[in-house]
Amino acid sequence: MTVESPLPLYDVPTARKTILRRPPWDEAVEQPAVRRAVAAVFGPDVSPWEAVRRIVQDVRRRGDEALRHWTERLDRVPVASFRVPQAALQEALNTLDPALRRVLEAAADRIRAFHQAQPLHAWLTQALGGSLGHLLRPLERVGVYVPGGSAPLPSTVLMTVIPAKVAGVERVIVVTPPNRGYADREVPVDPALLAAAALAGADEVYTVGGAQAIAALAYGTESIPKVDKIVGPGNIFVTMAKKLVYGDVGIDGLAGPTETLIVADGSANPEWVAADLLAQAEHDPLAAAILLSPDLAFIQRVQQAVAQQLPRRARAEVIRLSLQHRGGAVHTRDLEEALDLANAYAPEHLALAVADPWRWLPKVRHAGCVFLGEHSFEVLGDYLAGPNHVLPTGGSARYASGLHVGSFMRWIGLVALDPETARDLAPLAAAFAQAETLEAHAAAAEARMERSGQSAVGSPR
Amino acid sequence: MTVESPLPLYDVPTARKTILRRPPWDEAVEQPAVRRAVAAVFGPDVSPWEAVRRIVQDVRRRGDEALRHWTERLDRVPVASFRVPQAALQEALNTLDPALRRVLEAAADRIRAFHQAQPLHAWLTQALGGSLGHLLRPLERVGVYVPGGSAPLPSTVLMTVIPAKVAGVERVIVVTPPNRGYADREVPVDPALLAAAALAGADEVYTVGGAQAIAALAYGTESIPKVDKIVGPGNIFVTMAKKLVYGDVGIDGLAGPTETLIVADGSANPEWVAADLLAQAEHDPLAAAILLSPDLAFIQRVQQAVAQQLPRRARAEVIRLSLQHRGGAVHTRDLEEALDLANAYAPEHLALAVADPWRWLPKVRHAGCVFLGEHSFEVLGDYLAGPNHVLPTGGSARYASGLHVGSFMRWIGLVALDPETARDLAPLAAAFAQAETLEAHAAAAEARMERSGQSAVGSPR
Questions:
Q1: Quick check: A95 and A89 in contact, CB under 8 A?
Q2: Which of A233, A249, A265 is the last residue of a domain?
Q3: ipTM reported for the complex, 2 dp
């Protein structure tokens, strides 16, 4: 018996074909809303990819002039100067509601402490003759994209800028679109976002968004510096631009709609699970909030709780659309099957609301972040548990990690062989090179065989 | 006074504008040879990007049928079955020249030992209430692209497959184009390459190459499994295909021509430095072999040695083209300036052939792999020093690392707060959510404030 609920119930085979199916990452490009937005600016014959390509190329060629053009055309907010005066950040922090300031500070402190605790270090081994290992070096310049518009997210500023600064990045450059809601201010940006930038230690902030901001960070303009890597979430146009510029600059990944998968047994609190599903669904009609449980009676209690809570939610309409098209409850044979489905789906967020979550943890293979037990609910992770909330979506958790200090560093191989080892290895390298018909490689190795010991260079210490 | 030499001499301002300039990563797409190759198959009106897009889409839609079509059309080697029988790998190893086998084994042992030594571990901290940290999980399926054709590289098999297996990847799937030189064999692949696959522990090998192989790995066909990430170098078509499929699958980066930058002072052996430059240049007319030195007399000795050695090299013509267009010696003010130029260039390989290389190491910020002292010459790194030879090119060392065990793993965030901490943080999360106008997020946090302590779920241990 299925309870009438905004949270649809699926059996496993149906779920696999619908809500648990992974479409191609760029399916969103084909949404009618995206096509319409492109047509309104470029006419009906220009594809979304072509539109983004034109914006990126224009900024690359014309710099600030193009940046100004596209900002006026697409954001429709006049921006006197892209650069936000550094003093405006501190002032936004100083004039922020003190209660909110304390919240931002507490979040910043926990996020910083967590990222500082990750044990990533340069290393050397002496076991192979001389010293071999990896240097670990921070990136020099990082660009952070922070979405603006109707829902600016100061939490994203903390989650991107803080780990970059913990890693030792010299220049962390935040870009965020000018916000129509603050168009009358000198700096048309949500003050909480500026305050978060001050707290996190952003070195520069610019009011520019969309594909044009990504192009500016990738290639530099008169007013915006070229960076080494661009991180942070954005809408589909931002994401397409990131894919286009990748190679000339690093990127953290291709963000898609957010997803939560909750694996629960009958021991979980159905009202909490319902509340967590609604929280996830309110982000976006394309967001996915999915419950997997072997306990049908429990699922029904969650469905009832969803039905009761939904009308009280401010963003009920978004939630309804999300649950109807992307969300649902899946009745699994057992927890084992639920975990198998979770691994195949590779969710951005995976919550284990089960009696003994640590017991199930070894089965978790693919997820962005895992929440153990229903006290560790996702909303805490969104803001201030500590781990990063910029996480792989769309199934990319199968190959990518969320942001962490390592996202802002590089492992540089280090080869410092002692002369004896080098002499021993030279004939092997020469033989290998001959097998690959790289004769000059062989000759470089043979030169060391003839002449070893005659170098004026001391052995590396 | 400049010595007549195949290694041109540059001053710093000229070098910055020529050999040390970083062109866009995809400049190679516009090479006449690439255009001609595309025109020969698709006609004169199809761009290289469009050609690669068509191949990828075709394989995605038609699977093996398309794979067979493009293999016949582009590789022109009949392939009865893409899958190489697993027994053929072991047989190739068993029948390999014993001396070469010992070389491959020695290389495999050192590469394995180095990658096993990298200290990457899951971690937890209890300092923030409960347990927070990262799981570290291997990828499940990895595809390795190994170039074939005129210069098959067994060393690349070792450098890609071994770290993947060390990381714990379950299925490592090697693809390599069918090789015309072995078209009469049952398996048209260089036996040394198959032997290396056996030694490295490859789980499957397929004789398919080019953009069609990348598409097969990204989307799967009847005979080739879809993977989670594709790694390994390839030609420009392979690289373009990797960029196209990125997002539906992970990639290691966009490989370009190989580069070595040698920083040397007067203490270095000019003949060794010359031999190392020639080894680098023999890869490809587009390869870059560059010397930076403040010692003009030393540069002249290297130029003389290059002139003397070059005629003796088997690939002299390739070397000559490379040195003429991409390589050279740059006379710097001092070693400091040489290191600054090296960091700005961010070379794939950086060799410090100076009297006290460890002293200069802290100045190294951007490189794929650094070689300390001229005993640690790059050819050893190519084959068996231990660190990986699949390294970032084209300046991408500013944001990317070479392959390492971490390239085959993901950090999964872990949140297991204790109930007291969760209760303390819930009001802060609620306030933060309200500031972001995410009311359902606030409600999920508030639910814990009302009901904390009533959950049937035990606290995570």
A1: no
A2: A249
A3: 0.96
